[in-house]
Amino acid sequence: MTQNSAYEEQFGGIPAVWLRFNQFEAAVIPSVGANLVAFRDTERGHRYLREPDLNNMDAFKAAPAVYGIPVLSPPNRYEDGRFPWNGEIYQLPVNEPATGNHLHGFLHEADWKVEGYGTTELESYILLSQEIKEGHLFHQYLPFTFTVTLRYSLDSTGLQQQLKVRNNGKERMPNLFAFHTAINVAFVPDSDVSDYTTKITIGQRRELNERSLPTGQFQPLSPNEEKLKAEGVSPFFESMDNHYTAEPQNGRNYMELTNQRTGDKLVYDVGASYKHWMIWNNNTEGGFFCPEPQMNLVNAPNVQGLPAEEIGLVGLEPGEIFEQASRLYPIYS
Hints:
The chain is built from four helices and 27 strands. The protein has 333 residues and is mainly beta.
């Protein structure tokens, strides 16, 4: 195997495509949501994402949203499964009985097509696609016709992701995406979660009701949340399933995870199209947390009285293309 390569090899018994470039490697499982389940620095032994257990892949297949980088569309929760759009009300399945909401959409469990993969002098890459049209589960509930492509590449700096959406239909379509990215906190070997602090470019915290839906009000940030947006704080300072506006700093919208003992950092730079953050840390259990860049406010189609641009309730006209790049990369001490 050459140092820089792209090839097919299983991950825990499931067909995957592996990318290698310099010291980095990554693995994508096309058949389960095009989930990029591993991103590693093999020289340092760093593992940056929460990876599925190779001996228990059934757990991954049952809940792919809590491993790797799952793509969500439409993301997060929708009250009673209702999805108003352009004067129509579409009904999504209520798949979270505890809240009576629809949760996470239709792409993170879908089987994605591999358009191609390869390597050049500059990168190793894979391109995956999802064509939504009649017969697709997404189209069954939201009858829009479009193509989504995900391009992952490794280069000398780390991992890059490019999301591209093209409206192939004849009417304006909702363009709502998020990534439920599961960050492995103790990414340095022989380190402990207590060694780490995270900084995230959050703005205001939105109040959520008992159904985890926004009330329209904001809550004051706690002292630890102020640290979260400033110098950093443990990602496990309390149990979080919190919704924030994004407030870029120095022109960048990002999460930074720092090992305070070694000085090594992981940066997740997500781009300005993601105007909201969800931050979830699995009740502080398990050594991972999910800083989730999200284009739209939770339940945005059902929110009244706020500008569509502010809450990310955005769309694509026929033939239009949306594209956003994100990057995950280390900075070494």
